[in-house]
Amino acid sequence: MTRVLIFGAGGVGCVYAYILHKAGASVTAVCRTNYTVVKEKGITIRSKIFGSQQFQPTAVRTVSEALEYGPFDYILVCSKAFAGTAEMVKDAVTPQQTAIVLAQNGIGVEEDYAKLYPDNPIITGVVYLPVTQVEPGIVEHGPLERFEIGTYPPNAPSAAKQSCQTLSDLYRAGGGSAPVFGDVQPQKWIKVAVNVAWNPTTALTMCDDANYLRSSPRAEKMIRKVMREVASIATAAGYPNVITDEVIERDIQRPIGRLETGGKEPSMLTDVREGRAMEVEAIVGNTLRIGESHGVVTPYLEMLYTLAKGRSYAIAPDGEWKPIARHGRNAICKTHATRILELRERAQREQRTEAQLERHIVLYCASQIHALDVALQLAVRYKTNAVVFRGLYADNQ
């Protein structure tokens, strides 16, 4: 029996776990926030293709915990493509046996795995799978499922080619679709052109794709210019005539067709809304660096990368982050703190509940305090207790 380890049991990982489970593979899934549900109840999939399904993979919390269910023939990496991910699966990789399958966004993401595991087959792919984990262990899946795969590098040994074909056969046996390409990099360039253009743009504007197009007569033109810059990079990297005008037009027509029905939310926009780190490096940074290495000038791409890095830094700052230096900040804090104390005293006189008071203070902070860091201090910390809040007030006198 084929043994598969799913690293990253989010929406994509859950659907791929189901396909491989249905094909007869022994599936172990490394889970995080959904561990308890998957362990006790399994995974539920509501799919436009597969219908309503429920199945029970072996749920573990860590790669090391998964080792008792190995050795694994395949490790399917479905997590976001962040730096250091390649090392996280190291304990489960059996040299010369385990094929590492990358179901990740971005370009050039294979290099870290190839360096760490030079004797193992590396299979990389392009995921087309509209899927969302709406609750822990519960996944909703739309009407598309396609995983375009190929070996890395394209001229990999015959054993790696056979491992790739075997995986494709497993997908087909499980009702899925994983066509094998002799060189899958052209497909990856097409996907990254779409992602580079739409993901940071929607994350920075906080518009879904259709509303972004609606926002300005220049919006569509900018998307086209970014995709053409990526096309120039792909050409310089050895893949000419891949991101053609026809490919760009086909992609643009999708959100145009959604102008009246409602747009789609790219993954980076979802990450911003949820306060999560974005895959800026894998999608935008790697593309930019490949272009720079070939001397391709890409001003739109460079701008998007720089702004997206700033947005990502604001979401997940490091230890160097400093609060805004604002003239007269203490006076601002004192004024608002006084007003909030008055709201508290009035609520006590009127015998209002803590929930009612909380609502009043949140509304006050949201409508009257324009300095976000001040608002957070006064709206969040006060809820611990009155003593803590009064202490904050005293600190700002």
Automatic annotation (TrEMBL):
The keyword Transmembrane helix does not apply. This is 2-dehydropantoate 2-reductase. GO terms for molecular function: 2-dehydropantoate 2-reductase activity. NCBIfam families: apbA_panE. Residues 183-310 form the Ketopantoate reductase C-terminal domain. Keywords: NADP, Oxidoreductase. GO terms for biological process: pantothenate biosynthetic process. Residues 4-153 form the Ketopantoate reductase N-terminal domain. It comes from the Eukaryota. InterPro entries: 6-PGluconate_DH-like_C_sf (IPR008927), 6PGD_dom2 (IPR013328), ApbA (IPR003710), KPA_reductase (IPR013752), KPR-Related (IPR051402), KPR_N (IPR013332), NAD(P)-bd_dom_sf (IPR036291). One of its GO terms (cellular component) is cytoplasm. Belongs to the ketopantoate reductase family.
